[in-house]
Amino acid sequence: MATELFNSFMTGPDEKGRFGDFGGRFVSETLMPLILELEAQYEHAKTDDSFWAEMHDLWTHYVGRPSPMYHAERLTEHLGGAKVYMKRDELNHTGAHKINNVLGQIILARRMGKTRIIAETGAGQHGVATATVCAKFGLKCVVYMGAHDVERQAPNVFRMRLLGAEVVPVTSGRGTLKDAMNDALRDWVTNVRDTFYCIGTVAGPHPYPAMVRDFQAIIGKEAKEQMMEAEGRLPDTIIAAIGGGSNAMGLFFPFLDDTSVNIIGVEAGGKGVNQKMEHCASLTGGRPGVLHGNRTYLLQDDDGQILEGFSISAGLDYPGIGPEHAWLHEIGRAQYVAITDKEALEAFQLCCEKEGIIPALEPSHALAHVMKIAPTLPKDHIICMNMCGRGDKDIFTVAKHLGFDMKI
Amino acid sequence: MTRIDDTFAKLKAANKKAFVTYVMAGDPNYETSLEVVKGLPAAGVDIIELGLPFTDPMADGSTIQLAGQRALEAGMTLEKTLQLARDFRTTDDTTPIVLMGYYNPIYNRGVDQFLQDAKEAGIDGMIVVDLPPEEDDELCIPAQKAGLNFIRLATPTTDEKRLPKVLENTSGFVYYVSITGITGAAEAQASDVAPEVARIKSQTDLPIIVGFGIKTPETAEAIASVADGTVVGSAIVSLLENGKSVTEVLAFVKSLADGAHRA
User: What does the alpha-carbon distance between residue B128 and residue B8 come to, in Å, rounded to a whole number?
Assistant: First the structure.
């Protein structure tokens, strides 16, 4: 080769909203003009200093960024191998990384003159973040949540209502996150003039996967600087949990071109990735298809019908995954693994005991993989995992699994 | 020329408006569904839209969604939907069938395989809700090449600038969505629809058929009178939902067809 051009992993998506073969704009005609308008507005805002100034001001004073980079000493010692750091995004206002993205979309919605915000939510963290920012700006907020999730995430439902949001339990389909997304899309197609659809993950039609990633990339940007400060070098491995994949994409994106950094995404393996599909591991156990506006890996049957996932964690309970992850998987830049409910529960408990941090069940999956690989790695190997949410919302679920009676 | 083109030529010669119905393939089960579909032409239906069941019909209201669930629970698949078309063709070789649904089951089968099978099954065209012009390379262009019509939806949000793009690779007819919203929701208003149909007509020679929000013979007549025809779906499907007999369903279809044909 005469000249070797450096191919960046950070240039996607292309003008059709594709990451390789994944992504795109698979929506009905009614929505098409809306997403084109959103794309134009986002492209404009992205290069507007005043937009980012407003974001940074709120990230600092409202969210509490930058989130700390924490050396988990006792966990490192316990595992006896690699040095483990945690990016503490669970310390954000509202308790998870979700608010990073919501702020961006709501500021954009305000610029577009939209007065009504809709969102879908699974575990309720994105719904709570959306309700929070809507309360702050005095916007009407409607959150679609699967009836099944309304039941298992009752504290978050109450939080959203306290914050003035209308929570609509979705009974259509099977009443889970994917059905909540369907109903949010139905709302949007009906209320096209005044409504902004605030999607909570790096999925959906273009420009959502890119836009949400860009808002979440603050996680990776900070992590990079903080690792340089703490260790004088980049980490060797970065790890994050994946449902739709927004916290992972946020951590991964700024590291994509640092090829010395090993990138691992952790999917929800539920009861185990097997023929019975009792898991949510779209990359490990699914295949490409088209749903919710994008082509990506999906859990589906032989006829192309979408299957329900299964996970102890409502936040990972989605049969798809962001298209950029599907692309990173296919080109091999990132590695994707699955962790079972049981392994995640063990990691949850270990983190409580060793670090005094009650993690959400979502990052417990990432932590479980850290527990698997850290002992096999040398002491100078640095792992940075994304502690993307706190576990307050999950204590009822965990108590049930551990056989602890909460009524006492 | 597909059966769709032939049908519109005949309707035009007779100075009649088209009456189009949507039913979900396999709702509530294969046998009943086939009986309904076979009875539609005699009830006055000019074009049959055959719903392809999908678990996540994001542009449909609860009536169509539940119909899809009933069909899937009764074991319906894309293959059986094509079989239903084949069975229908044993008794009727003139009434056009338009397959209407979402892309994933088709993508899952493989586009080339699907087009070959659909054509052999006697399908004339398709409406795939989640394939806008921006994704024409996926199925629209291959379908046209295979000699099947690809019918596109135009909506109240399709503005002047965008309309040529929507019309560009459309064939058979244009399906104008009367409202911003989902199937089976708000009632369509002829006064809102008329100027929109005129706007689209100024840019295409294709027939304009109007659907969404048409539930009664009166509305069917009013809407058909300002367009080239009208589609009714949810109102018919809801009769099956409520356990009505095939005879009752077809009697209602006939009343709607008579309404549309009065226009």
Answer: 21
Comparing CB atoms, the residue among A25, A28, A179 nearest residue B129 is A28
Task: Tell me, yes or no, whether A148 and A281 share the same domain.
Answer: no
List, for residues A351-389, the tens digit of each pLDDT value: 999 999 999 999 999 999 999 999 999 999 999 999 999
Helix B246-262 to helix B30-39 angle, to the nearest 10 degrees?
A: 30
CB-closest option in A27, A179, A290 to B104: A290
Looking at CA atoms only, how far is residue A229 from chain B in angstroms?
Answer: 46
**Residue A13 belongs to some domain of the structure:** no
Tokens representing A340 are 């079972």
Domain that holds residue A396: 65-95+217-401
How many domains, chain B? Answer: 1
A212, A236, A268: which is the final residue of a domain?
A212
CATH of the domain at B115: 3.20.20.70
Residue A293 forms contact with B (CB below 8 Å)? yes
pTM of the predicted protein model: 0.96
Q: Select which of B5, B27, B46, B49 is catalytic.
A: B49
d(Cα B38, Cα B90) in Å, to the nearest integer? 10
Could you tell me the pLDDT band of residue A278, with boundaries at 50, 70 and 90? confident
- The answer to the question of residue A11 being in a domain is no
Taking only the tens place, the pLDDT of each residue in A215-243 is 999 999 999 999 999 999 999 999 999 99
| Interface residue B234 vs chain A (CB under 8 A) | no
**Both A28 and A106 in a single domain?**
yes
B187's torsion region: left (phi>0), alpha (psi -120 to 50) or beta? beta
Quick one: A46 and A182 in the same domain? yes
Q: How many helices (H) and strands (E) does chain A have?
A: 16, 14
Domain assignment present for residue A364? The answer is: yes
